[in-house]
Amino acid sequence: MSDNFILNFTPTGMIPTKEMTSFVPISISEIIEDVLCANDIGITMVHLHARNPITNAPAYNKELYAEIIEGIRKYAPELVICVSLSGRDFNKLEQRSDPLFLEGLLKPDMGSLTLSSLNFNKVASINSPDMINDLANLMIEKGIVPELEVFDTGMINYSKYLIKKGMIQPPFYFNLLLGNIACAQANLLHAGMMINELPENSLWSLAGIGADQLKMNSISIAIGGGVRVGLEDNIWFDKSRTKLATNTDLLKRIHIIAQANEREVMKSKEFRLEMNLEIGRGKYGRAAIEK
Q1: Which of 11, 65, 130, 266 has the greatest count of CB atoms below 10 A from its CB?
Q2: DSSP string computed for 75-141
Q3: How far apart are CA 60 and CA 137, in angstroms?
Q4: Distance between CA 23 and CA 30 in Å, rounded?
């Protein structure tokens, strides 16, 4: 397997606002601009969240995702695009699944799939078994690959249940998110346990919440994993919170750390091959298996 590492860029998320940091991209044009800048710096994939253009609140509408995806693919037709199907603000299947119905040049390659319910500091993300199963089955039907989001080892165990049921199919890509108050903590023991429990045929990236982002990104690069990084998970450049970060700041720092570890960012083309995705440039989602 290649030693190149996955760099999963998370520019926006559901929490950061302009009041918190002026650097977070909220509008469609801002998100497109940040993603294209990130693509020039060097990323493997992007994990997109849409925002309501009037209220700036998180949005699920496929029409908003369509505008963002169209703007990105006009200039970066090979970049792997994942859309958020988060349950933090939306609890109905027709809401959360809406971006999965985009087709053709607007079809996402991947959709996020959180493998259990969990509590954040002030809010819960509800992911019932029925919701997880319905989203997983719909992604199989649409030829869209799950980006498996896990916050503790129990969620990894649930992925193995889904594998047995045929609701997710290899190869798998996992985001391991550490440092949330109610889940796995951002330390070597918790990270190692989660990595050790991953099913065969899995690629993975480590993410750290807030001040833990840099630590978990650095560890992952050093031990052979991928990185999830962006203002979605952390808006500060330093632990003491004296400098607000830009997405460009965070990405350039990852490249410096990677260079020191003699590792290179995996290009989208290579990730597409690893994950059995279509080649991009007009063909997106999971590639059909030749019989």
Answers
A1: 11
A2: T-TTSEEEE---SSS---HHHHTGGGG--GGG--SEEEEE-S-EE-SS-EE---HHHHHHHHHHHHH
A3: 19
A4: 10
Do 233 and 207 form a contact (C-beta atoms < 8 A)? yes
Cβ contact 224:218 at 8 Å: no
What is the per-residue pLDDT for 121?
85
The secondary structure element, H or E, covering residue 58 is strand 58-59
**pLDDT averaged over every residue in the chain:** 96
Structure pTM?
A: 0.96
Tally of CB atoms within 10 A around 198: 19
* Cβ atoms within 10 Å, residue 220: 26
For 27-66, how does the pLDDT look when each residue is reduced to its tens digit (9 = 90+)?
Answer: 999 999 999 999 999 999 999 999 999 999 999 999 999 9
The predicted structure's pLDDT at residue 90: 84
Domain 7-274 -> CATH class: alpha beta
**Could you count the other beta carbons within 10 Å of the beta carbon of residue 53?**
12
Q: How far apart are CA 24 and CA 122, in angstroms?
A: 21
Q: Quick count: other Cβ atoms within 10 Å of Cβ 257? A: 16
Region at 200 (left for phi over 0; alpha for psi -120 to 50; beta for the rest): beta
For residues 139-155, give the mean pLDDT: 97
Nearest to 14 by CA among 136, 128, 123, 151: 123
How far is residue 51's CA from residue 60's CA, in Å, rounded to a whole number? 8
Residues 240, 14: contact at Cβ < 8 Å?
A: no
SS3 assignment, position 153: helix
